[in-house]
Design goal:
The structure holds two protein chains of two kinds. Chain A contains twelve helices and 14 strands. Chain A is an alpha/beta fold. Chain B has one domain: Rossmann fold (3-Layer(aba) Sandwich). Helix content of chain B is 38%, strand content 12%. Classes of the chains: A alpha/beta, B alpha/beta.
C-alpha cells in the first residue's frame, strides 16, 4: 500500500485561518464575519490585516447569517466563522431562507465540529450538521481532513458561486495531504488502491482510515481508501468505480450515523450497485466531555473500529449470493 | 413631479391590484398590504433611485429596499410591476402554479426587483444591514431601506440586528416599522404587549421618527427628514402608524383580514371604494 507519513500535526481550523488570510490578499471582495470566536476560528490574522473587511457581530449568529446574505448584494464574498453547532442548528432557518433559498454566495465556515471538540461536551459537539446542510437544495457540503486540505478548500470555495458549508475541527491532527494539492469541489481523492474493500472517509476519519488500512494490510486485506472531502455534490462516479471493483464498503465519519456521509453513499449504492456496507459513525447518541482521543475511542470512531467494520462486511461479501 | 395627490392616485390603483390579486388566488394577506400601500408607493415613486429595466442583483449605485414582512407581497409585486420591473399583467399569476410571484417574495424564480427571500419573519433587517455595509465598502452613497411589521418586532433576530446597527453606527439605513397593532391572533396589545418601540430603538442608538402612514404629505416630509439624518453615525427608524386594511372599510381596524382573501362579492364592495386610476391589470 501507499505509505502515508506526516511531518507535522496541526489543527484544521488553522488551515482555515491561513487560507482566509491568503484569500484576503488576493481577492478584495472577500470579507469575514465572526460571532465572538475570532481566536478560536483563527480569524485574527485576517482581522488585523483587513480591519475594514472584518465584521465582529457579537454573540448573535442569526444576525451574522443575515448580514452575510446582505453583503453578497453588492458583490462581496462573505465568510462566516463560528463553531459548527452555532453555524447550523442554531441558525437553520436563516441559512434556509436568506442564504440557500435566496442563492446567496455565503461561505459558512464551521469549526469545532463533532466530538473532537472535547471537554466542552455535548452542548457544543454537533453531530447532525452535515445532514442538515446536505438537505438544503444547492448547498455544497465540505468536510476537510487536515490543515493543508482545509487551507486549500478555504481558497477554492471563493471561486464557486453559491452557498458552501465548510466543516473543520478543533484538535491537532496529522497534516499529511500535499501542500500543493489542488482542491476540487466534488472530486474525491483516491488515497490507496485496493481490491478487497472500499473505505470512504471524511474529515478527521480520513487519517484513521489510513491507519486502519495499514492494519488490514498486515492481515492480508487490501483496502481502497477514498477521501470524500465533498459530501455534496458527491463524486458518484468515483464511488461506483471503486465499489464495482471491491464489492463492499465501510464509511467513516465524525457525525451521526443518520444524515451524513454514510447515508449519502448508501443512497447511491442502493440505487445503482447494492453491496454489503457498514457505517463507522456516532450511533444515534449525544457526545460528552473528555479529551478528543478518549472520545474517539469511546464512541467507536477509532482505526480499530474501521478495521472491525471492514472485516464484518468482508465476511458478508464472502457469504452473500449476488444476483 | 409626484405631488401627494398623484401619489395617492397611484396608491388607489395599487390597492385595487392587491384586492384583485388576493381574490384571484383565494389566498394572501390583504390587511397589512393595504396598510403599507401609501408608504411603499411614496418610497418607490418618489424617493428611490432604481433601474427597473436593468435589474441586477448587486444594485450598485441604486437604492435598495428590503421587505422583511414578506407576507405583504401583493403590495410589493404591484409596486414593482407599476414601476416597470415586470409586466403588469403578470400580477394575475400571483400565488399560482409556475408563477414568479410566489406567496412570499423569492429570488428563486428570477422575479426582477427582489434580492432576497422573506416571509419567515425577523430576517430582513439583518440582510439590509449587510447590504448597507457592502455599500460602505463600495463607496456607494445610495441608501438601504427596510420595512418590518410591528408583530415582527417579537422576533429575537430583529433586536440582534437593531443592536448591531446602533453599536456599529450603520448610518446608511432607514428602517420603517408598520405599527398597525395587529397580528394573526389579535392585537399586539393582546398577543404580546411589548411596550413602546421608541425607547427600545433609542437605547440601541437609533434615531427615531414617527409618522402617519396614511397622510401622503407627512410621509413625504418624514422620509425626506430620515434621509437628511443618514450619514450621522446613527441608523434611522420611522415608526409608521397605519390602519390594517386601510382603504376598504370592512377590512379596517381588525386583524381578521390579515391573511384572508375576499370572495367575489366582497371584492366588488372593496373595489367600489377604490378608484381605478391607472387601469386594472
Amino acid at each position: 500500500m501507499n505509505k502515508f507519513t506526516y511531518t507535522d500535526k496541526k489543527d484544521t481550523r488553522s488551515g482555515f485561518g491561513a487560507g482566509l488570510l491568503e484569500l484576503g490578499k488576493s481577492n478584495p471582495d472577500v470579507v469575514a464575519l465572526c460571532a465572538d470566536l475570532t481566536g478560536s476560528l483563527k480569524m485574527d490574522a485576517f482581522e488585523k490585516e483587513f480591519p475594514d473587511r472584518f465584521f465582529q457581530i457579537g454573540i448573535a449568529e442569526a444576525n451574522m447569517m443575515g448580514i452575510a446574505a446582505g453583503l453578497t448584494i453588492g458583490g462581496k464574498i462573505p465568510y462566516t466563522g463560528t463553531f459548527a453547532n452555532f453555524s447550523t442548528g442554531r441558525v437553520y432557518d436563516q441559512i434556509r431562507q436568506s442564504i440557500a433559498y435566496s442563492d446567496k454566495n455565503v461561505k459558512i465556515c464551521a469549526s469545532h465540529a463533532g466530538i473532537t471538540l472535547g471537554e466542552d461536551g455535548a452542548t457544543h459537539q454537533i453531530l447532525e450538521d452535515i445532514g442538515m446542510m446536505r438537505m438544503l437544495p444547492g448547498m455544497v457540503v465540505i468536510n476537510t481532513c487536515d490543515y493543508n486540505q482545509t487551507k486549500a478548500a478555504t481558497i477554492a470555495i471563493s471561486k464557486h458561486h453559491g452557498p458552501v458549508y465548510l466543516r473543520f475541527g478543533r484538535p491537532v491532527v496529522p497534516n499529511f495531504t500535499p501542500a500543493d494539492q489542488k482542491f476540487e469541489i466534488g472530486k474525491a481523492i483516491l488515497l490507496n488502491e485496493g481490491n478487497d474493500i472500499t473505505i470512504f472517509a471524511t474529515g478527521h476519519l480520513v487519517w484513521k482510515s489510513l491507519e486502519a488500512c495499514e492494519i488490514l494490510e498486515e492481515k492480508g486485506i487490501h483496502a481502497e481508501v477514498i477521501n470524500i472531502h465533498t459530501i455534496k455534490p458527491l463524486d458518484t462516479e468515483a464511488v461506483l468505480r471503486s465499489v464495482k471493483k471491491t464489492g463492499c464498503v465501510v464509511t467513516a465519519e465524525e457525525h451521526q450515523v443518520h444524515g451524513g456521509l454514510g447515508d449519502a453513499i448508501a443512497q447511491v449504492l442502493a440505487r445503482h450497485h447494492p453491496v454489503p456496507m457498514e457505517f463507522v459513525a456516532v450511533n444515534d447518541s449525544f457526545g460528552e466531555s473528555g479529551t478528543p482521543e478518549q472520545l474517539m475511542i469511546k464512541f467507536g470512531l477509532d482505526s480499530v473500529n474501521i478495521v472491525a467494520a471492514a472485516e464484518q462486511v468482508l465476511n458478508r461479501k464472502k457469504s452473500e449470493v449476488h444476483f | 413631479m409626484n405631488t401627494p395627490e398623484n401619489l395617492s392616485r397611484i396608491a388607489s390603483q395599487v390597492r385595487r391590484d392587491i384586492i384583485r390579486m388576493v381574490n384571484g388566488s383565494s389566498s394572501g394577506h390583504p390587511g397589512g398590504s393595504l396598510g403599507c400601500t401609501d408608504f411603499l408607493v411614496a418610497l418607490y415613486f418618489h424617493f428611490l433611485k432604481l433601474q427597473p429595466k436593468n435589474f441586477n442583483m448587486n444594485g450598485n449605485g441604486e437604492d435598495i429596499f428590503f421587505l422583511s414582512n414578506g407576507h405583504v407581497s401583493p403590495l410589493w409585486y404591484s409596486v414593482l410591476a407599476r414601476t416597470g420591473y415586470f409586466e403588469i399583467k403578470e400580477l394575475s399569476t400571483f400565488r399560482k402554479l409556475n408563477s414568479r410571484l410566489q406567496g412570499h417574495p423569492a429570488t428563486h424564480e428570477g422575479l426582477p426587483g427582489i434580492r432576497i427571500a422573506s416571509g419567515s419573519l425577523g430576517q430582513g433587517l439583518s440582510a439590509a444591514i449587510g447590504t448597507a455595509l457592502a455599500k460602505k465598502l463600495n463607496h456607494d452613497e445610495r441608501l438601504v431601506y427596510c420595512l418590518c411589521g410591528d408583530g415582527e418586532m417579537e422576533e429575537g433576530q430583529i433586536w440582534e440586528a437593531a443592536m448591531y446597527a446602533g453599536a456599529k453606527k450603520t448610518d446608511n439605513i432607514i428602517l420603517t416599522v408598520d405599527v398597525n397593532n395587529q397580528q394573526i391572533d389579535g392585537s399586539v396589545e393582546q398577543v404580546m404587549p411589548y411596550g413602546n418601540l421608541r425607547p427600545k430603538f433609542e437605547s440601541f442608538g437609533w434615531n427615531v421618527l414617527e409618522m402617519d402612514g396614511h397622510d401622503m404629505s407627512a410621509i413625504l416630509a418624514t422620509i425626506q427628514q430620515a434621509q437628511s439624518l443618514t450619514g450621522k453615525k446613527q441608523p434611522v427608524v420611522i415608526l409608521m402608524k397605519t390602519v390594517m386594511g386601510q382603504g376598504v372599510d370592512f377590512m379596517m381596524h381588525t386583524h381578521k383580514w390579515h391573511g384572508v382573501a375576499p370572495n367575489d362579492e366582497q371584492m366588488k364592495t372593496a373595489l367600489s371604494q377604490l378608484e381605478e386610476t391607472l387601469g386594472d391589470y
